[in-house]
Amino acid sequence: MPTDANGGGDAARRTRDERPTEHRLPDATRLGPVRLQVADVERSLAFHRDVLGLRVSAREGARVELAAHGDDRLLVELHRVPGTRPARRSGRLGLYHLAIALPDRPSLGRFAQHLIELGVRAGSADHLVSEAFYLDDPDGLGVEVYADRPRTTWRRVGGELVMGTDPLDVDDLVRAAAGAPWRGGPAGSRIGHVHLHVGDLREAATFYGQGLGFDRTVWSYPSALFLGAGGYHHHVGVNTWAGPAATPSEADESRLMEWTIEVPEGADLAAVANRLAAIGVAVERAGTGLAVRDPWGQAVRIVTAGAPLDVPGLRGGRSP
After folding, report:
1. Would you tell me how many other CB atoms lie within 10 Å of the CB of residue 153?
2. φ and ψ of 92, to 5 deg
C-alpha cells in the first residue's frame, strides 16, 4: 500500500486499532437525509426523478424533498441557491459521492436495465460487500446507487472487512430482475453512506471514529478509510484522493450542505456530544439534535427519534 503524506497507507495502519472503547454508536444507527445545494432545482429534480427514480414528497419555494415510492422517509433535499456554480471536478474537499442503497439485488437489476434503456452512461463496480453504479448529477455531484450482498457473504481478514473494486457483472445483475420493470426507487431505499474527500486520514479517523463513534472497518484501501456502526461495511468513507492542495467547496458552488446521522435515543446523542467535546470539537444544539463540522468544514447533523437531548452547557445555534 502506498504511503501518503496527507494520511494515506501509514496513517491508515496507525489508526486501525484506535477504536472507541466505550459509547460506540449503537447498532441501530443509520443515516438520514442529505442536503444538496444546486443551481437549478428543476434540472436537478428531473435527474433525481427520471434517472434515480425518486419522487417529490414536499416542496416549498427553492427547496424540494425527495423520497422513494411507497415510502415517506426523506432521502434527499435539493436547495436552489441563485448563482450556484457546478461542483469542481478536482481539488475540492467535501462530497465524493452520496450513496442510495436499494433494498435488494433484484431492485438494483431493475435499475441497471433502466439505465440501459435510458442510454445513461454510468460507472460500475463489484465491491464484494455490495454491487454499485456511479453517476454524476447535473451539477457534478457524485451519486452511487447500490445494493448490499448478504452479510453472511462478507469476509474479514485480521478484523478488517474485505472490500474491492472489481468489474461488475451487469448481465447477471439484470437477470436478477427477472424481467420486472423499473417503477422508481422502491420502498426501503435509504441513504446508505456518504463518501468524502478529506485533508488528512488521521484527523478524519479522530473526528469520525473517536468523536462521532464509528468503527473503522476497512483501512487497507489506498489513501482511504471506511467507518461504520453495527458491523455495517461503512456509513462514511473518507479519502485523500483530491490531493494535498485541495480546499473546501466555496459557498457559491454545488455541494453537500449537510448529511445526517440518526441514533435511537437521546442518551446516544449525549454520548456523541461528550466524545466530540473531549477531542475539542465545537458542538451546537440544532433542534433536538446536534450540529457539528468536521475539520474541513463539512456539516453533519446527529438526530434521534427518541428522548430529547439533554446535555448541560451545550449551547444552541443555527444549523450549519
Report:
1. 9
2. -120, 140
User: CA 244, CA 242: separation in Å to the nearest integer?
Assistant: 7
CA distance 107 to 208: 31
Contact between 233 and 132 under an 8 Å Cβ cutoff? The reply is no
Q: SS3 helix, strand, coil % of the chain, rounded to 5?
A: 20, 35, 45
Strand-pairing partners, residue 45, are none
The confidence band for 95, taking pLDDT boundaries of 50, 70 and 90, is very high
CA distances from 50 to 42, 106, 120, 184 (A): 12, 19, 11, 8
Over the stretch 31-70, which tens digit does the pLDDT of each residue have? 999 999 999 999 999 999 999 999 999 999 999 999 999 9
Q: Is the whole model's pTM more than 0.85, yes or no? A: yes
Query: Cell 435499475 maps to which residue?
Result: 111
* pLDDT at residue 287 in the model: 85
pLDDT at position 167, please?
Answer: 98
Q: 107 is written with which cell numbers?
A: 431492485
Q: Specify the amino acid at residue 63.
A: R
What domains, with CATH codes, occur in the chain?
9-304 (3.10.180.10)
Q: Which residues contact 158 (CB under 8 A, 6 or more apart)?
A: none
* CB contact at 8 A, 66 and 76: yes
Alpha carbons 169 and 223: distance in angstroms, whole number: 26
